[in-house]
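Give me the 3D structure for Transcriptional antiterminator.
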Amino acid sequence: MLNNRCSHILHRILYSQMPIKIESLAQDLSVSERTVRYDLDHIDEYLIDEGFNRLLRKPNEGISLLLANVKRQELLCCIHNSDTYEYVLSQNERIIYILYDLLERDIYTTVQQLADKMLVSKTTIQNDIKEIKVRLGLNRDMIETSKGKGIKFVGDEVKLRKMASKLLFDHFDTLNLFNVNFISLFNDVNIGIIQDAVKEAEKQLKNTFSDYAFNNLVIHLAIAVKRIEMDKDIRMDAAEFRQLTKTAEFAVAAGIARKLEDRFHIIIPDNEIGYIAIHLLGSNFSLADDSSHTPNENDIYIQMLVSTLIEKMSTTYGVDFTLDEQLYENLLQHMRSAIYRFKHKININNPLLAEIQEQYVDIFNCVRHVSAFLEKDLQTKVSAEECGYISIHFMTSRERMKNSHERKARVLIVCATGVGTSKFVLLKLRSIFDFEVVGTVSVHDAYESIKQEVIDLVITTVPLKLDHIKCVIVQPFLNEKNISELSVFFSQYARNIDVAEIQETAVVSVQSLLQIIGKNCTINAPEVLCNELSSLLRKNKIEYPALMELISEDRIQLHGNAETWQEAVQVGGRMLQTEGYVTQQYLEAMVENVQTIGSYIVLLPGIAMPHAKPSDGALKTGFSILILDRPVQFDMVESGEEGRVQVLITLAAVDYVTHTRALKELIRVLEQRDFLQHITQVQSKIEVLELFNIQ
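Predicted structure for Transcriptional antiterminator (695 residues):
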């Protein structure tokens, strides 16, 4: 009986018009010449058993087989009808086999054992081991070789698993892992069960993983099952584990763990569940806003990263992307997953990369340039694939802003005298202005509609108390003053939504100017010149308030008293509520956020910044500052000093861009040396303002 490789060699010889050299066969099969000679001996035995002549072996010429046509056809029929066995492994497949064979055991494996399993010579295996060490690079020390004993894996468990997964996926296109079961490691692991568990995770997370991410997670879980059976489990940083337990992905990971425990009769430690959660977080791509996200401890840091990324792209590319709040939301969601991929070096695949690089080369190159600050801050390399995904967000934003002038103002009509009057007012308005009607409602339904809908303008026949939405009071029979005031609003609205178009025009102008300048002058620093021209041509840029504009004496309280953190948060919030910065709903949302996610609001030891989402009732942007005589314990954060807070800086922001800009300025102030000591010893509100550099 022939194995598959011998069958392949015999076919090559039969169909070749010339003798084939052993060197050529060895190179073609990625094995040593000695292995080929062993195979040729085995083929000779087969030919004799079947009644044929031996192979002809001529030095310096090669191997051939002289047969008449009839005999040749008989031999081909014999080969076709006989059972072949054992999948013929390429060098890449042998390398993967060796790595996973080592992962399966905690003792030395000899070169001879590996050669016997893969039907190759010891020389072939020794060459494979050398190649493995080359591919491992700096991690080559993870393979320990001992004369007379063999080889085995040593080192950190996480690194071992990452290395195994990486080498597998480096050659994923050439391997057929799930159809050809050539890796003995998975012989007793039902891959289908693991795949079903991952599919269930997709449903629970309401997300569809890419094929690459899906297979990567399946491989990780298969390796984990085998290593846990050997009592080789992962250890994780305690603080990171606590943070992971607060994510939805951890709950889903726990569900996966329970399924695997039941099916494979193992006990999966908590740290392994945390590591599964990391893979789920890293696999969770998003190109759209996810309003279901629950904030976590990283959110403030990620908000600042995203804000900086958008600002740098605006400067480099020449379009003010800060005008697009949806971009901020979408990038925020994307970066929450990306952070885990960066930190834990989880590889990704981007099937759109080539198209992005070809069709949107300008945006892609800007993202690659800007990503340098991410690499420095995160101390990791941002791959081209990651830059491609980030580029998609900016590409979408550019198109969205170019087409933003097509969006009509969303208007709510409110009338005290009934729906009939509202319809009459609406008919008159539509004869003059072009807008989108959100609804026509009575007064008692107005506030509920405003909470539930995105509204640009409220047109009402009765006074309404609205601080955060433009409100125009009109007569049922529109008079000249009403029409004039509405004309001003719709004109301003049109100018605001055309800003993006102006920005895009500025980019074209910059490129045109650079071409003209380049024809007549030598440009020593093209990028610097491009940035300066973009800044010069940029118009209608929104100015955001500086930190000094967001704090006043009226919103500072010294010698505050609170028995609990809930009471302290309420005191800080009421200072904002009293001056019309937030609603009661905002105060309740702040308390709920702390209960849900805990320590994310503690910026620095002793200092917390309670806040909620803009949509939770933020009417204006501003801070309040509460300095307590005695610290309160945020008991869900940490026991001990880290959870004891004496200074609460409560933030209200009407949008995320303003929120993040204010937060960045605040962090710079708080990081001043001995800031906590200084602010807790002040004697007046003026001294507090001086600490914040407010004149």
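The chain has five domains: 4-81, 91-186, 191-283, 406-497, 547-691. Let me know if you want a second pass.
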